[in-house]
Amino acid sequence: MHPHEAVLFDLDGTLIDTAPDFVAVLNRQRLAHGREPLPPARIRSVVSQGSKAVVALGFGDRFDLDSPELEALRQEFLTTYLKHIADESRLFPGMDELLAGLEARGTPWGIVTNKPSLYTTPLLAALALDQRCRVAICPDMVNHSKPHPEPMLKAAHALGVAPERCIYVGDHRRDIEAGRNAGMRTVAVGYGYILDGETALDWEADHTVDTVSELSRLLGVI
Predict the structure, then answer these.
(1) pLDDT digit string, tens, across residues 146-162
(2) Per-chain mean pLDDT for the chain
(3) 3-state class (DSSP) for residue 73
(4) pLDDT class of 201 with cuts at 50, 70, 90
(5) Of 10, 21, 171, 175, which one is the catalytic site residue?
(6) Has 130 been annotated as catalytic?
(7) Does the pLDDT at position 37 exceed 70?
(8) Count of CB atoms situated within 10 Å of the CB of 49
(9) Is the peptide bond before 147 cis (omega within 30 degrees of 0)?
(10) Cα separation of 178 and 150, whole Å?
(11) In the chain, pLDDT over 90 holds for what percent of residues?
(12) Average pLDDT rounded to a whole number, residues 69-93
């Protein structure tokens, strides 16, 4: 594989399986509003799209996507989500060992996410990742979020590593575009929250993997 000096990850669906908490919060909200729970797989597929997409899945058939009512539901969702941000969210199986392997060989790793720091910071703290992660760039720290290269370049600068010596790993088309726009090597993961009708191969990343084990081998940590 192309030599690299740092590894950067997307958060939701790549590093951490946050979908269970999104599923629980949205279905709790639907029940509170007299609606039946949705199948977890349906919610899981839109988690990488952010809270607006999740709430739109839950209530978009009732309210216009840009309506004040849907925005009020989104704020209600986010308030509850913050209270339950790490009830069930965990590193994907095998990811802790992958990170330990990077750390053992002195390769810094970090996060570039479109999840605001209001939610990223407590999530990382709850999973004891805040002291291991060398940098975490959230959209409120930059002027432009992914797929713009700004957050990617900010992360590389914070690590003191040239962008072309970084690997970026993600589970969404915008992740691959962001990495490419920043001049980084990219890895698309097929185990994440991929939209219905898409596959990780569609994004034409430099590498595509289907499991964390494959990612570990690709990065040379096992």
Answers:
(1) 999 999 999 999 999 99
(2) 95
(3) helix
(4) very high
(5) 10
(6) no
(7) yes
(8) 17
(9) yes
(10) 9
(11) 90
(12) 97
The class of domain 6-17+91-219 in CATH terms is alpha beta
Query: At which residue do the structure tokens 């494959």 appear?
Result: 214
pLDDT of residue 1: 52
Distance, in Å, from the CA atom of 162 to the CA atom of 140, rounded to the nearest integer, reads: 23
Q: Encoding tokens for residue 60?
A: 């978009």
Domain edges within the chain:
6-17+91-219, 19-83
For 147, the token pair is 């797929």
Query: What tokens were used for 46?
Result: 């839109």
- Token code pair at residue 160: 């003191």
Sequence-ordered list of residues with C-beta below 8 angstroms from that of 158, at least 6 positions apart, any chain = 110, 134, 135, 137
Tokens 């992740």 -> residue: 175
CB half-sphere exposure, 92, CA atoms < 13 A: 26
Cis omega (within 30 of 0) for bond into 163: no
Kindly tell me if the per-residue pLDDT of 175 is higher than 60.
yes
Strand partners, 9: 111, 169
Contact 109, 133 (CB under 8 A): yes
Q: How many CA atoms lie within 13 A of 10 on its CB side?
A: 31
Residue whose token pair is 């289907």: 210
Q: Tell me, yes or no, if 61 is annotated catalytic.
A: no
Provide the pLDDT for residue 60.
Answer: 85
- Contact criterion met (CB below 8 Å) for 13 and 200: no
